[in-house]
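Weekly structure sync, notes
Attendees: PL (lead), two postdocs, one rotation student
Agenda item 3: pending single-chain targets
PL asked that the sequence for the first pending target be pasted directly into the notes so everyone works from the same version. It is reproduced below exactly as submitted, 363 residues in total.
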Amino acid sequence: MIAQPAFQRWAAGFPLTRSVAERQSGALFDLCSGFVYSQILAACVRLNLFSRLAEGPRPCAALAEELGLTVEATRRLLRAAAALNLVERLSDDRYGLADLGAAMLGNPAIEAFVEHHALLYADLADPVALLRGEASTRLSGFWPYAERKPGDPPLAEPDPETARAYARYSELMSRSQALIAEDVLEAFPPRGRRRWLDVGAGEGAFVAALMARAPDLEAMIFDLPPVAARARAALEKRGLLSRVEIFEGDFLADPLPKGADILSLVRILHDHDDDSVAVLLGRAHDALAPGATLMIAEPMAGARGAERVGDAYFGFYLLAMGRGRARSSSEIATLLDAAGFDSVRELKTRRPLLVSVLTARRV
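Predicted structure, written out during the meeting:
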C-alpha cells in the first residue's frame, strides 16, 4: 500500500499522517543525497573551515579570500554546511560554528576518517560489482594485513611500499584509538588487574590510556613486526617504553605471550572472518590461565542505537577491505564458547555507536 502513488499523495495531505509522510520522505531523500552530504563535509575538512571559525564568526568575504574561492562559491559551501548543522548562518553574511562543526574540532580523528573515506567511496562506485566480487578495491591495499590468513608463513621484512602502508593504517588507527579507549576503560576499569596484554595493539594508544588510569599495571602489547616497531617509537616518545613489554608476531601464525591476567582485543575481531577469529580466540585461550579474563571491544552489529553502523556501514566497509564482518554480541558469545570461554558479559558503554564491550572468563 505504501508503494502506491495514490496512497503516498493521500498520506502527505491527511492531517494525521502528514508528519509521518514528511519524515519518511525526508529519510528517503537523505539516503539518496548521503554522498553529497559527505562530500560537503569533506570540502569543509580539506579547507580547514572549522578551525578557521574556532575563534568566532567570520564574514563570508573574508573566508573566501582565505579559502582561495570566489565569494559565491564560499557562500554556496557555507549555506550547504549550515543546512547540515556544521556551521551557523548569522546576520550580515557572517558564519560561525554550529554543533556538529564544533564536535568535529573536538574529535580530530573524525577528520582523518573523512579523508580516509575517499578510498571507500571509490570502491563503492559500483556496489553491485563489489557484491559480486568483480572489483579490485583500494581499501584492501590500505590494510596490508587483510590478505593474511591462518597458515600463512611468518611475515617477512616488508618492502618500502608495504612499510609505508603499515605506517598509514597504524597512524589512522592511533588517531582514533584515544576516543575509543576512554569509553572502553570507563565501561571496564582496570582495577584489580596486574598484567594486561593488548593484542593487535597498533602504536599503543590504548595501552597508553590504560597506563594513565592504572600506573602500577604491567602492560604487554603484541602486533606484527612493522607495527610493533612503530609502537616502540610511539611509547618511547610518551615516556612509557620502560613500562610496556613489546612482542612481535602474527596472531594467526604465532602463539601469544603468556602471563597476563587479562587479554584485550580492541577493534580486532570485526576485521577477520570466522576461521581467523576462531584461531585468534584459541590462541587467547592458550595464553591465559584458568579464570583469567578476555575483553573484546569493537562496534557490534545490532548494538542499541547503532544498528546502521554495524550492518550498513561496516557491512560494506569490510566488504571493500576484503574480509571480516560486524558481529552481534550473541554471535561473538558463540565463538567464545567454542574457544573455551564462559561467563560472557556485555558491558554498557557511553557511545555504542563507536564501541561495545564484552568480557569472558577462560575456563
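Discussion points:
- The chain has 15 helices and ten strands.
- The first strand starts at residue 58 and ends at 59.
Action: rotation student to compare against the earlier draft before next sync.
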